[in-house]
């Protein structure tokens, strides 16, 4: 570990535009062309001429070359030359997001199979386009039509590909009206922003929407605390950068929970270090973890500590899962989700449960490593690291939760902080 300067533990407020990517017009922005060669061209009206100039030939060439590929879209850039998207994922733990958004323009030099293409330009096999009722979808759903087209093609056994060989400058992000979102949900039986995987599996198990086995085939058990014991406690006592990070986050939680009668709920408490720090700040704390060994280590480590009277004897721990939190509605004044969401296969389900157990006006404090191109903070245990935009979009998609503050921890770390409030 290197140094983590506390002065770099900055707060930042994200504007609605930076969270949502800006809104398109509610008018239909799609131009459909049939050149008579068995292909259909779909192009966003704000997209300038793609490069290189033979882009139609390039995109179309992937369809006969690769098995079941029916839709091929271009790589999209911001006006400044950074990547805006190499296709989109929808049926994903992070929900809808532009793949690779914000990285240097030279990143992604190989084609990428994705759930859908939501903007720019794309070429579709004409037979697949018609079988999916593509023209009707694009007319009925002006913002979500391309996504609906891609998902329908997938359900019918086709595949969608985003390729870097063709580049367009296009920063369009779906921004549908409520009626369009409802129509999309009626067709597919899930929310487009952050699908609950239970809804997806109930309707679509076994069909082409669940093509990405690394996301949907299930992960290994989380045996981290069986193997490593009280790892965070050990790091806290030996590594100043980690101690600074933990103390900063504990102080932040105290800011949102002190003076409240309800306890802090430490979700995924692990070895209990954060629960200990919250209690030392005078907070009543309940920790839960799905791993029995984590609960055992937490209980053991905190049993020898002395806590202030307001902590009511110190942290309590019990085995519990985030998708079925073992407490009543409105149980907690504050819920912490520290270094947890990046492990979850269905985060929106856990976020819904967090919203349920928070009292009205209570707060969620979520901390997670920021996504980076080509790397991970923990390639063994982390499944899905987030950008700030992705994290905010998913939390804001949770009933009654709204982001009120964002921050980050830099130095040797690249942590995102998102604080949400439960609406009364």
Protein architecture, described:
The chain has two domains: 193 residues, Alpha-Beta Complex (Spore Coat Polysaccharide Biosynthesis Protein SpsA, Chain A), CATH 3.90.550; 201 residues, Rossmann fold (3-Layer(aba) Sandwich). The chain has an eight-stranded mixed beta sheet, with helices on both faces. Strands 2, 3, 4, 5, 8, 9 and 10 form a seven-stranded mixed beta sheet that branches. The protein is of the alpha/beta class. The chain has 15 helices and 17 strands. The chain is 31% helix and 23% strand.
Supply the key terms:
424 residues, Spore Coat Polysaccharide Biosynthesis Protein SpsA, Chain A, Rossmann fold, 2 domains, 7-stranded mixed beta sheet, disordered N terminus
CATH architecture of the largest domain: 3-Layer(aba) Sandwich
Distance between the termini: 42 Å
Query: Strand-residue fraction?
Result: 15-25%
Can you list the strand order of the major beta sheet?
1-16-17-15-14-11-12-13
Task: Kindly summarize this structure in a few lines.
With 424 residues, this protein is α/β, with parallel strands linked by helices. It has 15 helices and 17 strands.
List the helices and strands and how they pair.
Elements: E1 11-12, H1 16-20, E2 30-33, E3 39-44, H2 55-65, E4 69-77, E5 83-85, E6 88-89, E7 97-98, E8 112-114, E9 121-125, H3 126-131, H4 134-140, H5 145-155, E10 159-169, H6 178-188, H7 197-204, H8 213-216, H9 224-228, H10 231-238, H11 240-257, E11 264-267, H12 273-280, E12 285-289, H13 292-302, E13 316-319, E14 332-338, H14 347-357, E15 358-369, H15 388-396, E16 401-409, E17 415-422
Parallel strand pairs: 4-10, 11-12, 11-14, 12-13, 14-15
Antiparallel strand pairs: 1-16, 2-3, 3-9, 4-5, 4-9, 6-7, 8-10, 15-17, 16-17
Helix pairs in contact: 4-5, 10-11
């Amino acid at each position: 570990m290197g140094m983590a300067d506390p002065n770099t533990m900055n707060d930042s407020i994200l504007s609605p535009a930076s969270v949502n990517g800006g809104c398109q017009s509610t008018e239909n922005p799609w131009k459909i062309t049939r050149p008579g060669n068995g292909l259909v061209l779909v192009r966003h009206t704000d997209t300038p001429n793609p490069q290189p100039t033979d882009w139609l030939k390039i995109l179309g060439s992937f369809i006969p070359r690769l098995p079941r590929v029916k839709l091929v879209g271009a790589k999209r850039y911001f006006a400044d030359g950074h990547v805006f998207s190499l296709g989109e994922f929808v049926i994903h733990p992070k929900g809808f997001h532009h793949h690779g958004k914000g990285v240097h323009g030279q990143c992604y030099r190989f084609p990428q199979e994705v759930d859908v293409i939501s903007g720019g330009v794309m070429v579709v096999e004409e037979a697949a386009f018609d079988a999916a009722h593509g023209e009707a979808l694009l007319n009925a759903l002006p913002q979500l039509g391309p996504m609906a087209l891609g998902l329908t093609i997938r359900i019918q056994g086709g595949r969608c590909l985003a390729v870097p060989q063709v580049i367009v400058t296009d920063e369009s992000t779906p921004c549908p009206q409520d009626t369009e979102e409802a129509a999309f949900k009626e067709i597919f039986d899930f929310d487009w922003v952050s699908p609950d995987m239970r809804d997806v599996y109930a309707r679509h198990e076994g069909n082409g929407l669940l093509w990405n086995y690394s996301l949907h085939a299930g992960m290994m058990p989380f045996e981290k605390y069986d193997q490593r014991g009280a790892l965070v406690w050990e790091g806290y006592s030996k590594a100043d950068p980690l101690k600074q990070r933990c103390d900063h986050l504990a102080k932040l939680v105290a800011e949102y929970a002190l003076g409240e009668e309800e306890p802090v709920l430490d979700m995924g408490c692990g070895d209990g270090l954060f629960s200990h720090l919250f209690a030392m700040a005078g907070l009543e704390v309940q920790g839960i973890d799905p791993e029995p060994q984590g609960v055992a280590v937490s209980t053991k480590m905190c049993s020898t500590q002395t806590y202030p009277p307001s902590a009511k004897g110190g942290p309590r721990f019990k085995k519990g899962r985030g998708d079925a939190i073992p407490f009543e509605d409105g149980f907690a004044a504050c819920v912490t989700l520290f270094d947890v969401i990046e492990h979850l296969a269905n985060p929106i389900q856990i976020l819904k449960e967090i919203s349920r157990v928070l009292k009205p006006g209570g707060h969620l404090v979520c901390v997670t490593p920021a996504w980076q191109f080509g790397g991970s903070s923990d390639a063994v245990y982390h499944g899905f690291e987030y950008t700030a935009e992705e994290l905010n979009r998913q939390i804001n998609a949770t009933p009654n939760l709204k982001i009120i503050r964002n921050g980050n921890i830099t130095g040797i770390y690249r942590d995102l902080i998102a604080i949400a409030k439960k609406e009364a």
